[in-house]
Amino acid sequence: MGTEAQNPPSAAGRAALALTVNPIDRSLGSRLRDKRMASGLTPEQLAERLAIDPKDILSYEIGAKRISADRLLGIASVLGVRPAYFFGFRDEPDPPPDFNRKTPREEIASHRALSEQGLRLHRAFLTVKNDALRESIVALVVELAKGGGEGPLSGLKSTGEPRLAPEGARQSG
Q: How many Å apart are CA 172 and CA 129, to the nearest integer?
């Protein structure tokens, strides 16, 4: 028989614990307990799979002990859920994988390029002394962003200089 039935907390112990437990830890622990029980595992079985003390599982479940990110990943793996499940963010199944998505390495390279462009833009913007011109630049960038970069300045040469669209391609607005 599991530890749950052998050592239930006393009423006084539950009341004292309720005053000191973080509500997020309590909620996370409750979802952990529900998922563990739905999986048909005892605290001892889950602890064995995680190579930890069963008392830790019980402490997590009542919110008395905070779960580290590393431990949460392990628990989620054993129980077959995503870590976000424990926070209750979403219960619907994950969307199918997007095979056209950038790899993490491509995303990092893209982020670095954006950071470098942002820094160049920021430095250049700081050199503009005319308030009205700065406002116009901000308005231009905001409008370009709204249109997804489409418009008369949407094409850029590799030199970073704007390439104007042909007169017939301009949209009236």
A: 30
pLDDT at 20 over 60: yes
Per-residue model confidence (pLDDT) at position 170:
46
CA distance 3 to 44: 8
Q: Which of 46, 62, 65 is nearest to 54 (CA)?
A: 46
What are the structure tokens assigned to 45, written together?
């079985």
Q: Do 3 and 57 form a contact (C-beta atoms < 8 A)?
A: no
CATH-assigned architecture of domain 3-87: Orthogonal Bundle (1.10)
Q: Where in the chain does DSSP place strands (E)?
A: 155-156, 162-163
Counting Cα atoms < 13 Å in the Cβ hemisphere of 123 gives: 6
φ, ψ at 33 (rounded to 5°)? -60, -45
Name the nearest CA neighbour of 30 among 93, 106, 68, 85.
85
pTM over 0.85: no
- Distances from the Cα of 99 to the Cα of 94, 95, 106, 155, angstroms: 14, 12, 13, 27
Do residues 87 and 28 touch, judged by C-beta distance below 8 A?
A: yes
CA atoms within 13 A on the CB side of 38: 10
